[in-house]
User: Which sequence fits this backbone?
């Protein structure tokens, strides 16, 4: 387990109370001044956050050192440069393993003066359950936050859909990575997510039965200093999640019109959504989903409106599609630049569906055209989605519906060919890495003769 820090700027306190509460029970203010040095408590709490402010006027001070030690005397050190004359500020998390915290001033001659020492004992906070199971949806929900991340289990149950909600305020980066790994290294696939407005990472995914490892990480923007949030080894007692296929597509096909819904397009134009996305992408999505919820009569229509909104908001990044080092594909980057590739389309679609309370997962595999044959069952070059409506799953590829180029320039191409597509047609051009996501029984092998044929328009 790890300790993480976030830097904040705080105004000088007018009062000198040592410990003060905040609106959150797991965050406290610790203020140390010359006036309250004699009032410092002997004990602080672990497993919570402290906004630490030290006001010591010392012209010889170089930095303030906060050092936490565990019972084996292993330490973690924070060096704080003064923000102004004698003001040192830092937000830290005191882990359950921390037993002692010392605060010292290091002078320019490297001499140190100890100004405070505290024993640490666990705070009396109720930990949220990490994993819960919903019998109705057959989904597992994994919640990781400041109260429970030290209790993350070592195993999950493979073969099910998982909803993840990761909210770790002590981590100051905006990107979350996770990796599914199997015996075959070519089936190792990373995902990238960014924080939403509530400082949470939210996504849903399927952990296949043959999953061997599942690694969840947070990483700094320069790709250094990986911080392990959780490491899961799915249980060997694998179960099978049943992806229910619709018995009829009559209702879904009402929305395969090959016509954009001008109500959502006009609305996005009226708020100048593309320009607004450059500075406030989350605000655009909030306004967009609110509008969609007011327009839609059912979840099929919600998905169609999301599909059309994405057509307006982003374009396919044709010039960087084949580059190894291309732009991040998280929804924030996509909306700010207005560009993405298939993974970006799929992640944005999933994020918007989640905001609209529609279950959606991200699928990866081989999406090939007739002139690009690669008959390797492990090959991955494309991403798409599955949405669940009325208990049944539907296949959708927003990327192929909303991206078309002629001579390197985007035209106004739009279709619904890959919206609510039937599995028997979808498989002809989209081969998922995990057979359960074909929605076919029995599942087929990749070398079957119908693969790599364009799906025909479905009526």
Assistant:
């Amino acid at each position: 387990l790890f300790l993480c820090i976030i830097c904040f700027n705080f105004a000088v306190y007018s009062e000198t109370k040592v410990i003060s509460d905040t609106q959150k029970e797991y965050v406290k203010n610790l203020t140390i001044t010359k006036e309250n040095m004699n009032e410092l408590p002997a004990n602080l709490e672990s497993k919570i956050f402290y906004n630490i402010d030290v006001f010591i006027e010392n012209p010889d001070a170089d930095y303030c050192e906060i050092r936490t030690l565990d019972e084996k005397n292993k330490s973690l050190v924070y060096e704080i440069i003064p923000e102004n004359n004698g003001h040192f500020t830092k937000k830290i998390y005191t882990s359950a393993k921390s037993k002692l915290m010392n605060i010292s001033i290091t002078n320019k001659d490297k001499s140190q003066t100890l100004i405070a020492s505290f024993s640490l004992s666990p705070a009396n906070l109720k930990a949220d359950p990490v994993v819960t199971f919903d019998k109705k949806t057959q989904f597992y929900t994994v919640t990781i936050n400041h109260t429970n991340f030290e209790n993350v289990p070592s195993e999950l149950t493979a073969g099910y859909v998982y909803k993840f909600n990761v909210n770790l305020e002590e981590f100051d980066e905006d990107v979350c990575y996770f990796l599914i790994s199997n015996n075959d290294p070519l089936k190792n696939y990373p995902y990238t997510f960014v924080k939403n407005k509530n400082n949470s990472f939210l996504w849903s995914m399927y952990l296949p039965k043959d999953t061997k490892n599942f690694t969840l990480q947070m990483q700094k923007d320069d790709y250094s200093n990986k911080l392990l949030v959780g490491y899961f080894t799915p249980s060997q007692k694998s179960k099978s999640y049943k992806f229910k296929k619709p018995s009829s597509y009559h209702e879904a096909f009402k929305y395969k019109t090959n016509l954009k819904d001008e109500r959502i397009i006009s609305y996005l134009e009226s708020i100048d959504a593309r320009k607004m996305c450059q500075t406030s992408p989350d605000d655009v999505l909030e306004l967009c989903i609110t509008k969609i919820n007011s327009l839609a009569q059912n979840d099929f229509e919600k998905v169609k409106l999301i599909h059309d909104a994405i057509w307006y908001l982003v374009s396919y990044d044709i010039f960087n599609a084949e580059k190894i080092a291309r732009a991040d594909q998280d929804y924030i980057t996509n909306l700010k630049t207005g560009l993405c590739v298939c993974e970006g389309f799929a992640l944005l679609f999933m994020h918007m569906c989640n905001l609209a309370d529609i279950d959606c997962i991200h699928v990866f595999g081989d999406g090939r055209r007739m002139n690009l044959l690669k008959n390797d069952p492990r090959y991955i070059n494309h991403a798409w989605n599955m949405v669940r409506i009325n208990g049944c799953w539907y296949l959708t590829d927003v990327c192929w519906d909303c991206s078309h180029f002629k001579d390197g320039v985007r035209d106004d191409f739009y279709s619904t060919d890959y919206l609510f597509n039937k599995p028997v047609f979808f498989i002809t051009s989209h081969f998922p890495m995990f057979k359960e996501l074909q929605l076919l029984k029995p599942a087929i092998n990749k070398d079957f003769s119908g693969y790599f044929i364009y799906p025909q328009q479905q009526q």
Summary: The first strand starts at residue 5 and ends at 6. Residues 417 and 458 are 8 Å apart (CA to CA). Residues 1-14, 452-459 have pLDDT under 50 and may be disordered. The first helix runs from residue 262 to 270.
